Amino acid sequence: MQITKDTVVQFHYTLSDETGLLENSRSQDPVLYLQGHGNLIEGLEKAMEGHQAGDKFQITLAPADAYGERTEDAIQSVQVKHLMGAKKWKPGMVAVVNTEQGQRQVTVVKVGMFKAEVDTNHPLAGKTLSFDIEVMDVRAASAEELEHGHAHGVGGHHHH
C-alpha cells in the first residue's frame, strides 16, 4: 500500500543538520502519523507521498520546507513560572510555553529570579535538515482517526 492522503504511516528516522546527528527515533517506537493532515513538517509530508512499507530514502529540507528561517527579533521576556519542562533553567535549554497559538518550544537565553528571556524561534529554525527515513508500515486510516485528524496507537500523537 502506498502512502497517500488518509493513510496511517509508521516510520523510523534519523535527523541531522550540518553539525551532525540531532535525533534518532530507533530508541523508541516508530513515529505514527496520518498523511495529508499537516501532522508532519510540510517538506517531509510531501516526501513521504507514494512510498510504501520497506522503503528507505533520504531527504534534505531547506529551512523554508522545515521549521522556517530564524527571526532576529524573536527574544521575548516571560515569567519563569510559565516555562515548562524543567525545574531549573539555564541558557540554551529548550522550554515549552503555552501561547494563543498552542504550545511552542522556545530556547532560554537568560534567566533571572522571576523573568526569563527566551528565543521564540523553533530550535531547528534556520537549519537545513537531512532525514533518513525507513517506512515500517502503511495502512488505511480508521473513521475515528480521520475524524480526529491524526493517527491513534503506539507512537501516535496524544491528545493535548
Keyphrases for this structure?
4-stranded antiparallel β-sheet, Thrombin, subunit H, 40% strand, mainly beta, Chitinase A, domain 3
Would you give an account of this structure?
The chain has about 160 residues and is mostly beta strands. The chain folds into two domains: about 5-65 and about 125-150, Chitinase A, domain 3; about 75-120, Thrombin, subunit H, CATH 2.40.10.330. Helix content is about 10%, strand content about 40%. The protein is built from two helices and nine strands, in the order E-E-E-H-E-E-E-E-E-E-H. It has helices at about 40-50, 145-150; strands at about 5-15, 20-25, 30-35, 55-60, 75-80, 95-100, 100-110, 115-120, 130-140. The strands form two sheets. Strands 1, 2, 3, 4 and 9 form a five-stranded antiparallel sheet that branches. Strands 5-8-7-6 form a four-stranded antiparallel sheet, with no helix packed on it. A hairpin with a 2-residue loop joins strand 1 (about 5-15) and strand 2 (about 20-25). It is globular, with a radius of gyration of 18 Å. The two termini are about 30 Å apart. One of its GO terms (cellular component) is cytoplasm. Keywords: Chaperone, Cytoplasm, Isomerase, Rotamase. This is Peptidyl-prolyl cis-trans isomerase. Its EC number is 5.2.1.8. It catalyses: [protein]-peptidylproline (omega=180) = [protein]-peptidylproline (omega=0).
